[in-house]
Amino acid sequence: MGLQQKHPLSRRHFCLCCMTGAAFAATGSWLTPRQAYAEARGLVTLIKDSAASSPVSAYKLRGNVTVLEGSGGNIAVLTGADGKLLVDAGISVARSQLTQALSSLGPETVTHLINTHWHFDHASGNDWLHSVGAKIIAHENTRKHLSEIQRVEDWDYNFLPSPAGAIPSEVISANRTLKLNGASIELKPYRPAHTDGDVSVIFGEADILHTGDTYWNGIYPFIDYSTGGSIDGMIAASDANLAAATDNTIIIPGHGKPVSNTSELKEFRDMLVDIRDKVATLKKAGRTFEETVAAKPTAAHDAKWGQFVIDPPFFTKLVYAGV
Ligand SMILES: [Zn+2]
């Protein structure tokens, strides 16, 4: 069954990672083409407005781990007497819905926040979460990107430096294990994949893996070449995710249906490899980007993976750039 049947997509699922695709999709529905160009930057506002009013849903997993969906990237929460630990912070304007969802999981304050990478739909909640007591931990490149003006070419957007409270106070560049609420929480940096600051988080006893945006469940992923991402990095990260998981592991993707498993992850990896090979063959044969899109190298996968805002031509562009 397709993602769209089980899990209806709506405007609330738009996220910054999908912004170029959203602009494209929007031209037919809720913006005229002229407006789409004029308001390319206004999409951030649209996405924020959408996140501000969208509901946040909670799915209890196991071992006191819950996943929250509805504010940008999927957020994992570990609860317990030591305080709550969050994996990703969502979009800042969803603060009230997130606060409500977090309260429903218990009275403890948020003491720790791990960013899987620097993108707005995963880290723009950093400032308010820090203001209520969260220590922020991330890859050293995530701190760098949050501290500086950051241009993302594919979004045609310049992000301003984050406020001081939003900057991670603790950075990692190698594996690191935390102990909290009786759980072992392992942070593992990837080689550059979706960005150059991706980190996975493994809840050891509960056997749960949060992949950040190295894995999008059932939808073509965004790849951020502006900050070190690449298709080959995404494939290598998928292999690392598969090596870290067993058939029993619950996998939380950065985007898409928030509770996943190794067989769905394997399908994602195989889709990336197949499209990468087809696009590389066309590019090596001298095809331009337009000719490559016209050859439809994603055709076998579009019905399943191309129904979200990263559409087949845009995903082809992201692969073509890296082969
Ligand atoms: Zn992202």
List keywords for this structure.
single chain; 323 residues; alpha/beta; five-stranded mixed β-sheet; 13 helices; globular; disordered N terminus; binds zinc ion
Overview of the structural elements:
The chain has 323 residues and is of the alpha/beta class. The chain is built from 13 helices and 16 strands. It has helices at 3-6, 19-29, 33-38, 42-53, 95-103, 120-123, 126-131, 140-147, 231-244, 262-284, 289-294, 299-305, 312-320; strands at residues 57-60, 65-69, 75-78, 84-87, 110-114, 135-139, 150-152, 157-159, 170-172, 176-180, 183-189, 199-203, 208-210, 216-217, 250-252, 255-256. A seven-stranded mixed beta sheet has the order 1-2-3-4-5-6-9. Strands 10-11-12-13-15 form a five-stranded mixed beta sheet, with no helix packed on it. Strands 7-8 form a two-stranded antiparallel sheet. α5 links the parallel β4 and β5 (110-114). α9 (231-244) packs antiparallel against α10 (262-284). Mean pLDDT is 88; it is low at 1-41. Zinc ion binds next to loops.
